[in-house]
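Lab notebook, bench 4. We co-purified these components, and the gel suggests they stay together. Before we commit to crystallization screens, I want a quick structural picture of the whole thing.
Request: model the full complex, all chains together.
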Amino acid sequence: MNKKTAVLYSDIAPDSVQEKRFIEFFREKYHNDYELIWKHDASIIKGFRLEIESDVYDWSGEGMLRQLKSAIRSVSSKENIVPLLKDKFEGWIPEAVAEEIGRVKYVGDGIAYVDGLENAGYGEILVFESGARGMVQELRENEVGCILFDEDESVIEGSVVKRTGKTAGIPVGENFIGRVIDSLGKPIDGAGEIKESDYLPIENPAPGIVERKPVDSPVQTGLLVIDSMFPIGKGQRELIIGDRQTGKTAIAVDTIINQKGKNVICIYVAVGQKSSSVAALVTKLKKFGAMDYTIVVNASASDPAPLQYIAPYSGCSLGEYFMNKGRDVLIIYDDLSKHAAAYRTMSLLLERSPGREAYPGDVFYLHSRLLERSACLSDERGGGSMTALPIVETQSGDVSAYIPTNIISITDGQIFLESSLFFEGQRPAVNIGLSVSRVGGAAQTKAMKKASGTIKLDLSQFKEMEVFMQFSSDLDEASVRQLKYGQVLTYMLRQPQYKPMPVHRQVITLVAALSKVLNDIPLEKLNEKINEMNEWFENNHSEITSAIEQSGTLSDEDRDSIISLAEEFVRL
Ligand code: ATP
Ligand code: MG
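Here is the predicted assembly.
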């Protein structure tokens, strides 16, 4: 049988007498023969550190001080302290409980169970002998369950595990802007190290009520359909929801591109996507100069589930760093369905009991504590904001599934995308009836509010009319005109990718369309014509376009002149 070993760390090697004394000590205390292995550690200036079984004897200078400190603290303040202190000092000898080490009991599927760490706390980071790291997620009577941030091949059963006393955190700072990082803040874009300014825990309490102020300014997406009918305010949480391949990511990316020059920091968190899709997205952002103010956090489909699980929280902490400095932040979680699935995988492996659709019972809390951290901070707190656009994928348009209903109830509204619209060519494929923004209206600029007028009502009337018009063959002229008007509005909302519209273009387009000036243009030419009209306004009537951009308002005179000028343009 192999002799058991004990490891001694010190700056100077023990001589044979000392070694003998150790062996005797082991025999006395542990009733066994141990082999003493000496390891050089120059950082131990005085004394030594001894590891045996699951005990650590920290008799280094530093360790003894630490123990002495806690011994003094344990003296109750009510008692007469001097004699007690004297007592403590005289009778005091360092003990073996200053530090714990555990051993891996079982490892597999990105999870390790460790015993011997009786005082480890939930969320604490553990370090394995190989250098791999993990986070405590399950506390049991005799063991703790730990999710691994590194490949589990590096963790061996029986190897030593140490506590760090810290919860999971992420380095943050200005230098992260323009970079692609993983869930733990490590750069993965091959552009070298990132010098951090601070280190923040990934889980933070959300700002309280008094720390917030009402949402009062817009985050423009640059997409006419959203900015006119479902405006998003700074600090708001707006869900983008739809089936696969309906243009969800496209909306998020266009919104990022539209923040150019608006002094907003964008964070795109990719969860469970292909690395190649994320790389393509980064290339696109670079092409439009949007990486200058954007950070991409990527936990790809091939990363262990724990990394996918913490990615949104890491991104959120990065966002908070900027928000707390008074900056405006836009954060996109693409997507939370995959995030919930990663959490489900992890929870099932940790043997937690499954609930509805096999998700664990706390999946609601998973997303609410994340999204609640978005806020519009009060002026006393610096006035920063963090707007969140979580994305959720539905299965055949089923918004009543577990994860969609959860997230719909946590957010301030949703942009609902529909496959059928997408295939009809109506892109962005926003379903007007099912989409809503519960706070954005308050934050919409005056110009947009005035220009968008009755568009939502007109469109829903058109939708109703369209249905029964299908059954009638000959229509009176008024109905034909009404139908055409509805079609113009619908076609007007079509917008290609990567072409966000500035506010003045949106205002001019809306005013012209809603005053029915564009009704005689053939539908297939409409978008092209609208584009030309906007260019024409910019070139020939910049006084109107710049007045809208600068003041954010639309005067009655300007509105009237847009109508008459648009009529003039259509006649050209
Ligand atoms: P997934 O479910 O795979 O994440 P998604 O819902 O995020 O998909 P996107 O990847 O954004 O969808 O878009 C799907 C496809 O539709 C892409 O090829 C994209 O280029 C195209 N697309 C998206 N929006 C538009 C648009 N406004 N005009 C034209 N094409 C678009
Ligand atoms: Mg997508």
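Residues 305-323 form the longest helix (19 residues). Worth comparing against the SEC data before the next meeting. The mean pLDDT is 91.
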